[in-house]
Amino acid sequence: MGQKSRSRAWDARSSGGTTEALNLEKRGFEWFTEVQASGYGTPAFLRVFDLTDVFREVDEEVRREQLLKLWRRYSKHVIAAALAIILIVVAIIGWQEWQEQRRVERANAYMAVGSLPPAQAIDAFGAMSGEDGYGILARLRRASLLAETGKKAEAIAAFESLASNSSLPDAYRNLALMLYAQHALGQANAGDVINRLEPLTAPDSPWRFSAMELTALAEIQAGDTKRARALFLTLADDPAAPAGVRGRAAEIAATLPQS
Q: pTM (2 decimals)?
């Protein structure tokens, strides 16, 4: 049956059904007829459709070439950035290992100096002085050894220097201040000792009980036994105070006049 015969057949059927549906079916049939006439299903037709694969391969090749060009342009920068990151990581690890090794060496040196006779240890601890933890401990230990060997004035000056050094952590400065006050009683001005200890007597200070005890002793030195007795009684009645501090405070308060 030819194409014209089929068209006439469709025209004849159009009178029996929905016109729109029949028209769509007719257009589909005509399209199929045209495709079939052009060689649909033949090797030539399939070769035409095989061209889509060729185009796809060409597109992929173009994309690969573009990526290679981008890599050639920026590969040096990428590699340099990666090397920089590796070098930074290696440097950080090396620095941490060096610091750890230095801490071990400083700890061993501190322990070794501690076993020396006092006269030699004073000089050795002085040579260890630094801003790290062991350096500060060496200076504190040196000041204590000065006091133990009878060099009271030098010890007081050493403790005062540490307590006044604002670059040191507060924990070390406060410890140095406590040791200064302990050795300065009877040597330095009592009023100065009391004033310097005042911040450490605050309720939130971990040093408050020892600082109050030293302040009370300084008050006795200054002649204010009433104030001293009041401080000792406060310490003796404070359940949070260490047992040793409470016992000493109660004993000393009992020896002081009530007015």
A: 0.62
